[in-house]
Amino acid sequence: MEAYLQHLVAQSVGFALALVCVVAFFESLALVGLLLPGTVMMATLGALIGSGQVGLYEAWLAAGVGCFLGDWASYFIGRGFKEPLHNWSFLKRYQALLDKTGNALEKHSFATVILGRFIGPTRPLVPLVAGMLNLPPYKFAPPNIVGCITWPPVYFLPGILAGVAIDIPHSSDSTLFKWLLFTTVVLIWLSGWLVWRWVRSSKAKADAMTKWLPLARLRIITAISLAATAYSIFMLSKQPLMPIYAHLLHHVITR
């Protein structure tokens, strides 16, 4: 996938930005986003940003536009076809998720529209359900704009970090640094997910993971993960190649 995208980018930066916009659009489009590996594609595009082949802010703008168009297309699909959608067998597979999304929108529409953009299964469903519930456009628009502005850099970030690491000259030290960077990123993600489960454990219903992560075990694993994350970040900061990596990352962000 990355090699193919790199080939396309080499042909035209304008084409690359159009590709970013299209990926963000389909990732946000009702139901289509459920079938596409959008997270992987956004991370791959992030790697092209990190390697300097696409500008961060141009890609950010393109992804934001694609996100905005996809969300509003989904909103109007839900608003215009809510009755057929209720009876569609494909959508009934996601009935539990639709019900949960609908309840969240009715109680906390602003937060749900924003947070739903960052959760894979709900990203293409929240605008659709908002339309099906006839959520007024003036209530949908503000959180949607906030979500479309903040979402692209978050999903580009893993790819950007990887793309910048690729530019570090190859050596035995760079190999160790890259593995330590990868481990640190995974630990940060894991710790964030564990903390999120812990925070919502008192309100959320039991799911498949609850059997393996009861609250007592979750607390212990979260504490271990946070400690490992802190240690990994400390070790990464002591790496001789860290100043070089920080300089390359700064160049990507500021150019």
How is the secondary structure organized here?
Layout: H1 2-11, H2 13-28, H3 32-35, H4 38-50, H5 56-80, H6 82-86, H7 89-92, H8 95-107, H9 109-116, H10 126-132, H11 137-166, H12 172-200, H13 215-237, H14 242-254
Helix pairs in contact: 1-2, 2-4, 2-5, 4-11, 5-10, 5-11, 8-9, 9-11, 11-14, 12-13
Protein name: DedA family protein
Transmembrane segments: 12-36, 56-77, 176-196, 216-236
Membrane topology: Multi-pass membrane protein
What's the short story on this structure?
Its main location: membrane. It is found in: Cell membrane. This protein is mainly alpha-helical and 255 residues long.
Task: Report on this structure.
- It is built from 14 helices and no strands.
- It has 255 residues and is mainly alpha-helical.
- The radius of gyration is 20 Å and the shape is flat.
- The two termini are 26 Å apart.
